[in-house]
């Protein structure tokens, strides 16, 4: 027997990856991209006053709420260096941009200290300072105008539209890391439904669907809102009614921190029943049975011989 | 048909790869890691290096005081995500971030309290670096200067590597860098006294700057272990740098001796800038502050290339996404136009193309069989060439789908396959069997052991692997003995 080196033809073997591994890889590569979060905070002074009353089972004051919210915002920025964040406040009668990670709003950058991470500190101080400014600006009014929630949603959508389509010249750049992957809007609502805003809310939902934006809703205080339930359902988001209000932060992190791609692996709660009622166009009431114009699809609470629109 | 098989290999998409630092961290002892986790900035950086599922799981557990039962957590996991979830848990336990018993899951208490502190701020660990007050007399370094400094340092290293094999004499990086390059196996002095680039060095050149940086830092960490440096201090200093703000000065006062020694090394790599070696303050550069992110660690190379890019054709490259430094146009006729005047980029391209013409801001070359085979001979793989061309493709190229011409991609892969036609194996040839029955009997036994590499029934001989020889030989001896 002799020792020898044998050479033979080398054939490369090919393997066929099964389809589902490909699907998972797609999800995983999507998860690696930066995500964008727009947070809309309902800051109606009356509702927050009611929410802090000790007669509630779990009283929640605005201070506690804000400190937990800031921890949540920091958690979002902590997850990835490129994650972008925008915070809008819905105040009575106006909506205000409170913080944006892409542009510096105030000139006074907080002084560095060795114990905190600068971006976190920037969010915390900017948001709190701006909310305080706005609250100070609200005068003693006899009647509080309704909260400009729709205005804030619309602004958030405009913002997302701007960052997802940076400019026409780079439209062909598919792998530009600055383009955010799955933008989300989180609405933290305390006010009840405003039936007069039915049409603007619906329009906002349709534009969100078109932009592929997920709308999440957390109902922090007050009764369920019909329109926001529909908003979450139609954009594939999740609507959560906060039952244990002392555990706000845990609710926020477990349900709203994960981008949509992770939700395919770690599930988030969705509402099991949705109120699909609409508001009539004539009196802006939420109706159980409506009458719809066969031409323009307007909804009325009583039959009309001639459509008014 | 080789072409058929090529198209199939395209289907295999790159899997999510964990960060190169994580295996290193996993190899460390629990006490080392727990000491590392005492600093909030380290926790934040480690957290960012983890995969997305790990991050979400950690966040879910972060604010819970008690351990959670495993059954509750797995109720969140959708059936198709089971594998991803299991591997995420394995990573977390490997890093000692989560304590995973059979029934309960909880975060390491040190990690939990430090990450909480990082997110809420406060405490007195000073782990995010102590900033210095504004100095009225001297102006602190602005961001452009820092970028230029980092770029200059980094390109010096790379340029030294790429030109070492061509008999040129570029500026030498410092002794520490040379030693690191040699230790990491990217260069060696096998042929004479001068350092020569190795095949892994060639591969290194085609990686993204981010990968290159971590590659070197990982080697640095291995070296730190041998130099008896405290690994926790080395790591936490790196992590601290990654959470610092670009364009600010920090004080060296609170640093330990080990970390002060590190400053010198990191200055050579371009991660840290200091006015003088004895200076009491330092500024991190973009290389350092983007360590835990995926944003580009170096500013566009065009900016330092000279004045030519500002006008004419160079303006095309600059106008759209200057950060995205695409400059290569590849045509279906294998011709490459590279809008660059950066000597480093030209030198890297020269690894696998044949240069035709050079203009102040444009290099024209061809991908030829010879040039690609030269690159393959240097240890560069076809995939590396293709991925380099893809990542540095000109914005105009990005309108194409697929981005690179398929003919060129396939041809590069075919050239690689050409080299792989032969494969060698060591073993034994069994021949001169007395009868066909003997031959078949032994062959059947060898096949059972799965050691047959080649057989020829006509010549009554077969070839077995080295490992199987003892068994086959024993079998034949037993048989001849018994007969």
Automatic annotation (TrEMBL), chain A:
Subcellular location: Nucleus
Gene3D superfamilies named in the record: von Willebrand factor, type A domain
Keyword terms of this UniProt record: DNA damage, DNA repair, Metal-binding, Nucleus, Transcription, Transcription regulation, Zinc, Zinc-finger
Gene Ontology MF terms in the entry: zinc ion binding
Transcription regulation found in the keyword field: yes
GO cellular component, one term: transcription factor TFIIH core complex
First-listed, main subcellular location of the protein, grouped into a coarse class: nucleus
GO BP annotations, alphabetical order: nucleotide-excision repair; regulation of DNA-templated transcription
Record-linked Pfam families: Tfb4
The organism's place on the tree of life at top rank: Eukaryota
Functional summary from the UniProt entry: Component of the general transcription and DNA repair factor IIH (TFIIH) core complex, which is involved in general and transcription-coupled nucleotide excision repair (NER) of damaged DNA and, when complexed to TFIIK, in RNA transcription by RNA polymerase II. In NER, TFIIH acts by opening DNA around the lesion to allow the excision of the damaged oligonucleotide and its replacement by a new DNA fragment. In transcription, TFIIH has an essential role in transcription initiation.
Similarity annotation: Belongs to the TFB4 family.
Record text on subunit structure and interactions: Component of the 7-subunit TFIIH core complex composed of XPB/SSL2, XPD/RAD3, SSL1, TFB1, TFB2, TFB4 and TFB5, which is active in NER. The core complex associates with the 3-subunit CTD-kinase module TFIIK composed of CCL1, KIN28 and TFB3 to form the 10-subunit holoenzyme (holo-TFIIH) active in transcription.
Protein name: General transcription and DNA repair factor IIH subunit TFB4
Automatic annotation (TrEMBL), chain B:
Major subcellular site: nucleus
Stretches for region Disordered: 284-312
GO BP terms: nucleotide-excision repair; transcription by RNA polymerase II
GO molecular function: ATPase activator activity; double-stranded DNA binding
Domain of life: Eukaryota
This protein's record includes keyword Transcription: yes
Domain Transcription factor Tfb2 C-terminal: 410-476
Single GO cellular component term: transcription factor TFIIH holo complex
Keyword Magnesium among UniProt keywords: no
Record's keyword terms, sorted: DNA damage, DNA repair, Nucleus, Transcription, Transcription regulation
Physiological role: Component of the general transcription and DNA repair factor IIH (TFIIH) core complex, which is involved in general and transcription-coupled nucleotide excision repair (NER) of damaged DNA and, when complexed to TFIIK, in RNA transcription by RNA polymerase II. In NER, TFIIH acts by opening DNA around the lesion to allow the excision of the damaged oligonucleotide and its replacement by a new DNA fragment. In transcription, TFIIH has an essential role in transcription initiation.
The family this protein is said to belong to: Belongs to the TFB2 family.
Designated name of the protein: RNA polymerase II transcription factor B subunit 2
Record organism: Suillus plorans
């Amino acid at each position: 027997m002799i020792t020898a080196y044998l050479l033979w033809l080398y054939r490369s073997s090919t393997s066929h990856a099964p389809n589902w591994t490909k699907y998972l890889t797609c999800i995983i590569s999507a998860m690696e991209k930066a995500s964008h979060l727009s947070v809309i905070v309902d800051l109606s002074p009356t509702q927050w006053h009611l929410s802090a009353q000790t007669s509630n089972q779990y009283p929640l004051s605005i201070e506690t709420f804000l400190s937990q919210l800031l921890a949540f915002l920091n958690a979002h920025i902590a997850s990835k260096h490129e994650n972008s964040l925008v915070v809008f406040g819905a105040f009575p009668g106006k909506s205000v941009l409170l913080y944006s990670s892409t542009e510096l709003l105030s000139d006074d950058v907080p002084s560095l200290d060795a114990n905190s991470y600068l971006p976190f500190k920037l969010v915390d101080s900017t948001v709190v300072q701006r909310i305080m400014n706005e609250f100070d600006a609200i005068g003693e009014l006899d009647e509080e105008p309704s909260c400009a929630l729709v205005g804030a949603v619309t602004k958030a959508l405009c913002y997302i539209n701007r960052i997802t389509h940076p400019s026409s010249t780079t439209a062909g750049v598919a792998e530009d890391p600055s383009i955010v992957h799955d933008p989300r809007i989180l609405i933290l609502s305390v006010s009840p439904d405003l039936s007069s805003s039915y049409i603007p809310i619906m329009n906002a939902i349709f534009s969100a669907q078109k932009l592929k934006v997920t709308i999440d809703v957390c109902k922090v205080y007050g009764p369920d809102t019909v329109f926001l339930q529909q908003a979450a359902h139609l954009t594939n988001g999740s609507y959560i009614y906060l039952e244990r209000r002392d555990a706000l932060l845990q609710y926020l992190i477990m349900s709203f921190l994960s981008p949509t791609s992770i939700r395919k692996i770690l599930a988030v709660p969705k509402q099991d029943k949705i109120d699909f009622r609409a508001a009539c166009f004539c009196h802006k009431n939420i109706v159980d049975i409506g009458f719809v114009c066969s031409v323009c699809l307007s909804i009325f609470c009583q039959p009309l011989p001639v459509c008014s629109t | 048909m080789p072409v058929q098989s090529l198209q199939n290999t395209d289907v295999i998409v790159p899997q999510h790869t964990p960060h190169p630092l994580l295996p290193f961290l996993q190899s460390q002892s629990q006490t080392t890691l727990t000491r590392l986790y005492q600093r909030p900035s380290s926790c934040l950086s480690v957290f960012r290096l983890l995969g997305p599922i790990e991050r979400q799981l950690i966040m879910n557990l972060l604010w819970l005081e008690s351990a959670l039962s495993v059954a509750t957590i797995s109720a969140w996991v959708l059936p198709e995500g089971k594998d991803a979830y299991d591997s995420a848990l394995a990573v977390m336990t490997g890093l000692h971030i989560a304590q995973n018993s059979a029934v309960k899951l909880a975060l390491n208490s040190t990690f939990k309290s430090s990450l909480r502190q990082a997110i809420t701020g406060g405490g007195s660990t000073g782990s995010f670096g102590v900033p210095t007050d504004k100095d009225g007399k001297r102006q602190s370094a602005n961001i452009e200067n820092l970028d230029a400094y980092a770029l200059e340092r980094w390109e010096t290293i790379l340029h030294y590597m790429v030109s070492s094999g061509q008999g040129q004499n570029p500026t030498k990086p410092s002794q520490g860098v040379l030693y690191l390059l040699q230790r990491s196996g990217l260069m060696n002095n096998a042929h004479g006294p001068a350092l020569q680039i190795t095949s892994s060095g060639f591969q290194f050149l085609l990686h993204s700057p981010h990968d290159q940086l971590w590659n070197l830092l990982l080697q640095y960490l291995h070296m730190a272990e041998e130099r008896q440096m405290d690994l926790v201090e080395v790591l936490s200093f790196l992590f601290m740098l990654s959470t610092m703000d670009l364009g600010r000065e920090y004080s060296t006062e609170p640093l330990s001796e080990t970390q002060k020694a590190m400053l010198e090394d990191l200055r050579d790599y371009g991660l840290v800038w200091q006015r003088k070696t004895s200076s009491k303050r330092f500024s991190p550069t973009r290389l350092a502050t983007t360590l835990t992110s995926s944003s580009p660690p170096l500013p566009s190379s065009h900016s330092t290339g000279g004045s030519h890019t500002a006008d004419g054709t160079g303006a095309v490259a600059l106008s759209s996404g200057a950060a995205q430094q695409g400059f290569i146009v590849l045509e279906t006729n294998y011709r490459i136009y590279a809008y660059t005047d950066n000597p480093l980029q030209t030198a890297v391209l020269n690894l696998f193309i044949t240069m035709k013409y050079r203009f102040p801001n444009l290099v024209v070359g061809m991908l030829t069989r010879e040039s690609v085979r030269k690159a393959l001979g240097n240890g560069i793989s076809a995939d590396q060439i293709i991925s380099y061309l893809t990542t540095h493709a000109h914005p105009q190229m990005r309108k194409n789908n697929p981005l690179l011409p398929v003919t060129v991609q396939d041809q590069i892969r075919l050239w690689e396959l050409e080299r792989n036609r032969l494969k060698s194996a060591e073993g034994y040839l069994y021949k001169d069997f007395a009868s066909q029955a003997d031959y078949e009997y032994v062959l059947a036994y060898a096949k059972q052991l799965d050691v047959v590499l080649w057989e020829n029934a006509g010549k009554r001989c077969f070839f077995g692997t080295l490992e199987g020889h003892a068994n086959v030989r024993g079998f034949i001896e037993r048989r001849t003995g018994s007969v």
